User: What shape does this take?
Amino acid sequence: MAVRMQSLLSEETIETVQDLIQLNIDSRDGYRLAAEKLEDLTVASAFDFVAHQRELHADELALFVARTDERPRREGSYLATVQRTWNEIRKMLSGDDCLAMLEEAERGEDAVKSAYEDALRTTTAGIELHDVLQKQFTDVKASHDRIRDLRDQYRCHR
Assistant: This one.
């Protein structure tokens, strides 16, 4: 199967999948950290849900990389946009400013959506990977909208 998968996935596509794995791991870690520090259980629960979802996405994408006889990325970060976003959240954690964390999380979600949109543009429709990316993108959009809606609720109640 590895030979077949490698012939279907270009080096560029494999690199894109590796980037998405890392993005999902970074996102998972940021959401977990924020959820642990939040006092608002509704937002903490939403963050936990997204963290779990991102872990599942990373694991699912790692299977595609492993089939090419490459080693999936599992640690370290080089995606500066997401890293900066979560660094801002970490700075705010000491104050439990839920609105500020939701605003930063929504910015991070924008970056995740953009990365998936780019990946979908560069993968061939009809292959298994494209179908998985499309399904994950649907999840990402739903998470983005949930975080945005929570942020908007906090803005209204301030």
Remarks:
- The chain is about 80% helix and 0% strand.
